[in-house]
Protein: DNA 3'-5' helicase II
Amino acid sequence: MGDQPQNPVVQTIFQYMDLSNPKSFLLFAGAGSGKTRTLVDALELMKLQYAKALSMSGQKIGIITYTNAACEEIKRRLFFDANFMVSTIHSFCWDLIKPFTNDIRNWIEEKLVADIKKLDAAIAKSTTPHGVTAVRNQRSLASKKKRLAGLHAIRSFTYSPASNKPEKGALNHAEVLGLAAYLLTNEALLREILWNRYPVLLIDESQDTNSELLESLIATQQENPHQFCLGLFGDMMQRIYSGGKSDLASALPAGWKSPAIMVNYRCPKRIVRLINKIRITDDDHQQDFAPNAKEGTARLFLVDTSVQKDKSKIESAVARFMAKCTGDQSWSDSESVAALTLEHHMAAKRGGFSEFFLPFLEVERLRDAAINGESEDIRFLTLQLSPLISAIKREDDFEIATIMRKYSPLLASANLVSVEDPIAVLRNAQVYVDNIKRALDSESGGTIIEICELLNDGMILRVPESFMLHLGVGMKFDALEDDSGDEGGARVEAEHNAWRESLSASTKQLENYVRYVSSSSSYDTHQGVKGLQFSRVMVILDDEDARGFLFSYEKLLGAEPLSTKDVANEKAGADSSPKRSRRLFYVTCSRAQESLAVVAYTKEPKLVEKTVTTSGWFSDVEIVLM
Structure:
């Protein structure tokens, strides 16, 4: 989209953000419409017009984005201008509410009391007191009672999403959002702080923003519409998380503006026609082609799952077929094809990091950290261990030395000043580096824990304290426990077991995981690619491997009948499995810049073929039976 002309909507949005006469708005920006560029271009106009006024007043333009990566991209494109405060929704909310310590305590206390009451009732009704659900409820009840008992001893609360060992007063993601929504609704002072600090607040991906928080922000804007501009960017068809405000577009207050970008600058014509057909069931937004759009290619591959097949071979055959039919030999290079799976479990299996990754998915507090790559322990593996392993494999002495100078306790000045022979220290370090190289070159490639043990013994890297237990360095469970009351001893043991299993995986598994979490892997999830784009896209629809219940491509594609609940939800206009699946399908197909292959594993290929041809998604000649 680099040659995309400036969208005329930019000037319109800039006028809405007039500090003396603001107008709040919801910008419809469908897939590939250049939403981020539109946002940045409008902010650059604000910079030219209002930089001096903002600096003198101490006010800022607030921009909320969905991911840390998006934050950094927008900051970079604005040259890190101090007049713009760019952050994720959680960080923004925490910055706003953290001074309200007593209100936070009262809210948590009320919530804990209500949760305890519900758990007491559930346990009392349980007919299987030793069943999985009952045991989980009992543990949760004990945890919440412990947290409630210690609540009034907490002097201040914290929000540290990257910490792997939260403090006593640590709040989680959901609590920060819930508190912000509650306090904005009930505290006039906080609302005044918000609009005085940020006369303009822009929210990207607003369709996935927590509905209660969004409602409180809209109510705040309605209280002071002449001083506060709330700008929402998004597309309801790209709503992929359940907490978003489903009626956002239809429930806007009077006086709000509804600009739209109707051109798709990313996709070729064939893909634009496809995604227009996909969304026509949900709304009447239809996109136009970009002036220079090529025709592009789309194919649907139907794989009959009634006969056992090797899925990796099927997907390789699909790539070869696409290389032939498009004349694009890059389809034969797996690194050049974005393979999109429904969830992380599928991506891990196909991407070769399941042994390292899957144990984390079984433990709630480790799951998000592993998916986002943001905890301290995970960052040690991704930012220190993995780069060092790569440098040792390449025998890149300069890079090895660079990493060690930055992280090694052996080369820390406090250590070097106390040794008599620094050269001997370096020779000893080289012995350990050579031992690591031999382990990596072995047939097994070395396990992560084996490499960590060598690193720890040789002081090559400062291995995290929490790894000491896994290295067998005399720590017990009670040494790892905290008093936060979040989970207790059972949680610590579960986390220990997950880490022990993951660290027993090979270093190759870690390398594949690092590529995945840094978005350089050829695999990603349907949810994870929103906002991204790829030349060649393979969308994998496989309910059997997904193990989920929120999505069903078999229902969407007519291979499986709708449930009674699905039918009732459809009639009531509520969300349903087919609707959620259709939105995800729209998001994934709209990532393709040149060509698209949809691989559908199905029990009923003929029924699917009938559904997609009747709906106009694919023609007969575009469907391949595998």
Remarks:
- Confidence is low (pLDDT under 50) at residues 473-488.
